[in-house]
């Protein structure tokens, strides 16, 4: 019988759904808390509490942390060790996920791949940021780590623009990620592929009065 672990959040709907599915398929399931994972490089051992992660046939990463942050990159490094040094299959590959945790890294990967996206400016300079807000008339400033529009700020071209830019930079990291706002009406779409095979399309809807879906 296969031994499959799930990296997730206890009590989380999607985590529990995945664990229950694995339980039904294999007869057992294991929730692994990244808070409890440690690596002993001298012994080449990696454990989650008393569980030797090298004994698993596979580990599925459902949620690496409660929030997007640089801490998640450190957690993924531990799982990369497990995958590349110990040979345990990890889905998706930690080295691939690491490209997506940071919004800038994800954007650069998409740009290199020629994937269309809204006009985007990356800068540490407040004056350059101001120049592009004036060009766009309205722009969204996004933290490098985050999801579901958390900590994003829409800044419009007015007499307070420069101060709003300075305040955003102080509250976040030095690098500012600035994107022209696109009118997407009431919804946008996500397409799902697995192994190059198309699976499904889903829609994300706007709440009343919101700028984002």
List keywords for this structure.
single chain, 213 residues, alpha/beta, 4-stranded parallel beta sheet, 4-stranded antiparallel beta sheet, 6 helices, 13 strands, 32% helix, elongated
What does this structure look like?
By secondary structure, this protein is α/β, with parallel strands linked by helices. It contains 6 helices and 13 strands. It has helices spanning 13-26, 70-84, 94-101, 103-112, 126-136, 161-171, and strands at 4-7, 30-32, 37-40, 45-48, 51-52, 58-61, 89-91, 120-123, 138-142, 153-156, 176-180, 187-194, 197-205. Strand 3 and strand 4 (45-48) form a beta hairpin. The longest helix is centred in the middle third of the chain and has 15 residues, at 70-84. It starts with a strand and ends in an 8-residue tail after the last strand. The model has no long low-confidence stretch (mean pLDDT 94).
